[in-house]
Amino acid sequence: MLIVFFAALAAYSYNEGKARNILIDNIAFSSEGKNYEAFEAIQVIVDGKEPSLFLLEGDRGAANLIGKAHVLAVEELDENDRVIKTYRVSFKSSELKGNVINVVPLVRGKLPGWSYALEQ
Amino acid sequence: MNRKYDYFKHLLVQNAVPIVFLAVSAFAIPISQFSGTYLVQEMLVRLSRNSFLVLSLLIPILAGMGLNFGMVLGAMAGQIGLIFITDWNIVGVHGMLLAAIISTPLAILLGWMCGLILNRAKGREMVTSFILGFFMNGVYQLVVLYGFGSVVPVTNPKMVLSRGFGIRNVTNLEGIRKCLDNLLPVSVAGVDIPVATFLVIAFFCLFVVWFRKTKLGQDMRAVGQDMDVARDAGIPVERTRLISIIISTVLACYGQIIFLQNIGTMNTYNSHEQAGMFAIASLLVGGASVSRASIFNVFLGVVLFHLMLVVSPMAGKYLIGEAQLGEYFRVFVSYGIISLALVLHAWRRQKEKDRARRSLRGIQAE
Q1: What domain range includes position A69?
Q2: Closest chain A CA to residue B88
């Protein structure tokens, strides 16, 4: 019984503590004939943790995802770096198809291709 | 008047070591020119870092097995757990917990092996565990230097030596650095207090207090007082001693994990080596002996021992222009205090035998 408990605790700790490094892109995206432009300037907050990522159009930043479930907050900024709009998207680590996330399709309803592998 | 003098003399003799350390620290602190806030902060950090390791020594002393130099086996088990979680990139408190769970079976196995050997070396437990620690250090280095990366797969290339197998000299524990210390951060007058770590230590202290009252704890005490009498009373002496060493090794494993999460970096081949020596030195500085130790000795010893380690380099620099004095003290004092404690223990036992002999003859003890 004790062994089962510790095995379960180990599995829980593994899942909740597993960290993975990801890259966050702010690049233009096309899907089903529609083109989506990249944001001019955004601030990305991963799982509510500081520091946030400041990305201009075409930029890429790195972040660390810990655990299974995540929330990405994307704050669209104007020329004076004031927040115009905030997008909050939840996703699970199991939904990731690689270690790169493009916020442009992500905030528009998780369009297919929002996560992809880094090209070597 | 004689009685008061005898009592005072007895008190001095019983607490000679902490008194000497207090005197040396009192002398060195003003010379070191460290502020009170800095020293308080350092002592809190060192208390949180080292107390668990020192507390793990209490149970073998209760069972009459003396100072468990074999606690380094537990430290090694903890380090292997940390290597795994670093490779798998498990961070935070979850990483620490997973490291503890992974290393527990290994610590139990090593403690069992150590206990079996110590049962065959009754009366010579300390030196046997000391040498066993050296032997297992060799096995550990063989496993970590050749086994990891070849037999045991390591996926993180940053951890592996350039030849493709063997763990690097330094393992970065950035993922779990201060994760327990910062779990419940509290700051009072500019002094950070790692509340979560102290809660864990407090829980362990309660465990020790509770354990002493259990049947197993009482059995250990009986075995510690007299093995033959305990055996005649039906206590399984060998099994009790074995359990005490296993518990001590497992707790040392957790203590090493707590120690290393505070440091944030692990010297793969060295971190465990001084774990036993400094923990034992700390306990002895706190006034414990080979046969008797309390929770108070643990905390007093950690504070006094580390206080001297903190102030002596700066005191040495201002006194004789040589900061290396601190390093000299670190090694000399650790070995010296253990030697002094062993000599005092032998001397006290001889005194007690003489006193008992005199009282049997009907002569008043001096």
Answers
A1: 20-116
A2: A18
What residues does each domain of chain B span? 2-361
Q: What is the DSSP string of B170-222?
A: EEE-GGGTTTTTTTSEEEETTEEEEHHHHHHHHHHHHHHHHHHHSHHHHHHHH
Please report residues of B whose CB lies closer than 8 A to that of A16. Answer: 94
**pLDDT < 70 stretches in chain A:** 120
Residue B110: what are its φ and ψ, rounded to 5°? -65, -40
Among the partner-chain residues B90, B93, B104, the one whose CB lies closest to the CB of A14 is: B90
pLDDT band for position B353 (50/70/90)?
confident
**Residue-wise pLDDT tens digits, B137-155:** 999 999 999 999 899 999 8
- Residue listed under structure tokens 């306990």: B283
Structure tokens at B197: 């770590």
The pLDDT assigned to B24 comes to 80
* Other C-beta atoms lying within 10 Å of the C-beta of residue B292: 13
Q: Kindly determine whether residue B98 and residue A20, on different chains, have CB atoms separated by under 8 Å.
A: no
Structure tokens at B117: 């050997």
Domain count, chain A: 1
What is the pTM assigned to this prediction?
Answer: 0.87
pLDDT band at B330 (very low <50, low <70, confident <90, very high): low
Q: Amino acid letter at B348?
A: R
What is the reported pLDDT for B1? Answer: 62
Measure the CA–CA gap between B299 and B281, rounded to whole angstroms: 12
Q: Is B98 in contact with A13 (Cβ distance < 8 A)?
A: yes
What residues of chain A lie within 8 A of the CB of B102, using their CB? 10
Would you state the pLDDT for residue B51? 95
Type of residue at A46 = V
Write the pLDDT tens digit of every residue in A84-99: 899 999 999 888 888 8
Query: Is A7 part of any domain?
Result: no
| CATH no. of B2-361 | 1.10.3470
- B104 vs A contacts (CB less than 8 Å): 6
Within an 8 Å CB–CB cutoff, is residue A49 touching chain B? no
User: Is there a domain that residue A24 lies in?
Assistant: yes
A84 touches chain B (CB under 8 A): no
Average pLDDT value for residue range B309-315: 82
